[in-house]
Design a protein that fits this description.
The structure is a single chain. With 483 residues, the chain is mainly alpha-helical. It has one domain (2-467): Amino acid/polyamine transporter I (Up-down Bundle). Helix content is 73%, strand content 0%. It has helices at residues 2-16, 18-26, 35-38, 50-62, 65-73, 79-105, 111-119, 121-153, 160-176, 183-207, 231-234, 243-252, 261-285, 290-349, 356-373, 379-406, 412-431, 440-467. The longest helix has 60 residues, at 290-349. It is globular. It starts with a helix and ends in a 16-residue tail after the last helix. Belongs to the peptide transporter carbon starvation (CstA) (TC 2.A.114) family.
């Protein structure tokens, strides 16, 4: 229990200390007009309050990642707590903050556009393909996952196909309508349900004195599987996730002032880390050891763990509410996944989105592809997604490092976690069954050599960009309205 409580405390302290440090490094411009006002179109660019933006951001980035990932990661034992805390404070929250703030400085641009500007035009096409693939996979799986959970929750009384159709209809509306019409109105309620359910489980663990394993040299890692690099691809959204880089620009277009960025971007990643800690602790402590956890995962997957934990901690009624809170997570990431895909494609093709027809003809093919993908077994594709997800995180961190380098600021806050994850990304794909299947020792050598080469290319490009005085932000000098 001490390890668990200390980890939660560290996450909170990290927000007030390292979060402020990152904010100072970036350099907030309090009076600078944000895209919510400069580019206001009543659809994607709409000023919204900090509490509303924060809850939307939390739900956008969460998905089932901070629950299902930590549940699977619990098999690694208390070492999972270390990655959640360190990864969240020094990598994930930095990633989310820089992505969001750099987007604000560049009219709410998405990652492909930012990669094109700061890493070269070729990267625009690479990242665009990565991002759209990621979002299609996320959106499709986040149709099936909540539909399956609801099907079980309703004892099969409503057909699975009907539930999938209902969720698709909601996604279509949320993708096409202005951001403040559905997402801005229902997300605060969804967010409250998510936070209450997670807090309920967390408080239940403390009150019942659940036997949460303590971090020690003898209990560091009870599982037999190698920690590196697999744990970084198991626990993603609760520590570091490239999917977040596709979501933060949605809120960068609705943020009223730059000063609100730390609460919205850095703060909500910390909140997601706390949720991840709660579910990792619950999975470690409530199934009579790691053998029991393996059994329930084999029988029913992470969803079965969620159901068992919720009922054990909160009773039948409270457990049902907690499961509903988990159902909300994929739905509120699925809708914004499709919305982000529409916005990224529109930005790539330079198509204004104020007209409904312009939004419609981009969205329809996306949903058509997604319907087809729901018929495919995603086990293999999801492994590629996991790798692509962290590869996208590396790209986003390097964008942040480039921005700070050109600005002559402390770029190490982004480059160090970016370089670390780059080693893991290269090593994983060289060794994995879905990759090149090289022996692990060869994969590690390739990971370090590949990272060294790419970092060398980064510094070469960064020096040229600084010498050429690459503009870091869009000019809004002729716009005076600030909230």
């Amino acid at each position: 229990m001490i390890t668990f409580l200390a980890a939660i405390a560290l996450l909170i302290v990290g927000y007030f200390t390292y979060g402020k440090f990152v904010e100072r490094v970036f350099g907030v411009k309090e009076e600078r007009a944000t895209p919510a006002y400069v580019n206001n179109d009543g659809v994607d660019y709409v000023p919204m309050s900090t509490p509303k933006n924060s809850l939307i951001q939390l739900l956008n980035i969460a998905g089932t990642g901070p629950i299902f990932g930590p549940i699977m990661g619990a098999l690694y034992g208390p070492v999972a707590f270390i990655w959640i805390v360190v990864g969240c404070i020094f990598a994930g929250a930095v990633h989310d903050y820089l992505t969001g703030m750099i987007s604000i400085r560049n009219r709410g641009a998405h990652l492909p556009e930012l990669a094109s500007k700061f890493l070269g035009k070729v990267m625009k096409h690479v990242v665009n393909a990565f991002a759209v693939l990621l979002l299609l996979l996320v959106g499709t799986v986040f149709v099936s996952t909540p539909a399956s959970l609801l099907h079980v929750l309703m004892d099969g009384k409503v057909a699975l196909g009907v539930l999938i159709a209902v969720i698709f209809i909601y996604y279509i509306l949320a993708t096409l309508l202005p951001v403040d019409k559905i997402i801005g109105r229902v997300y605060p309620y969804f967010g409250a349900l998510l936070v209450i359910s997670a807090l309920g489980v967390g408080i239940g663990l403390i009150v019942t004195g659940a036997p949460i394993p303590e971090l020690s040299l003898t209990n560091f890692h009870p599982a037999n599987a190698a920690i590196f690099p697999l744990i970084f691809f198991t626990i993603t959204c609760g520590a570091l996730s490239g999917f977040h880089a596709t979501q933060t620009p949605i809120i960068s277009r609705t943020t009223q002032k730059e000063k609100q960025g730390r609460k919205i971007f850095y703060g909500m990643m910390i909140a997601e880390g706390i949720i991840a800690m709660i579910w990792a602790a619950a999975a470690m402590s409530l199934f009579n050891g790691y053998g029991g956890l393996q059994e329930i995962l084999a029988a029913g997957g992470p969803g079965a763990v969620v159901s068992e934990v919720s009922t054990a901690m909160l009773g039948a009624f409270g457990g049902t509410l907690a499961v509903l809170g988990v159902v909300v997570l994929p739905i509120t990431s699925g809708d914004t996944a499709f919305r982000s895909a529409r916005m990224i494609i529109a930005e790539y093709l330079n198509i204004a989105q104020k007209k409904f027809s312009s939004r419609l003809w981009i969205a329809v093919p996306l949903f058509a592809i997604s319907v087809v993908l729901t018929q495919i077994d995603f086990n293999l594709l999801w492994r590629y997604f996991s790798w692509a997800n962290q590869a996208t995180a590396v790209i986003a961190l390097f964008v942040g490092a480039m921005y700070l380098y050109i600005a002559k600021k402390n770029y190490w806050i982004a480059l160090i976690p970016g370089a670390f994850m780059l080693v893991m990304v290269i090593t994983y794909i060289l060794n994995a069954q879905i990759g090149f299947r090289l022996p692990m020792n060869i994969a590690w050598i390739g990971g370090f050599i590949g990272t060294a080469v790419l970092i060398g290319l980064f510094f070469s490009a960064a020096k040229k960009a600084r010498a050429n005085k690459l503009p870091l932000e869009e000019d809004v000098s002729d716009y005076n309205q600030v909230a």
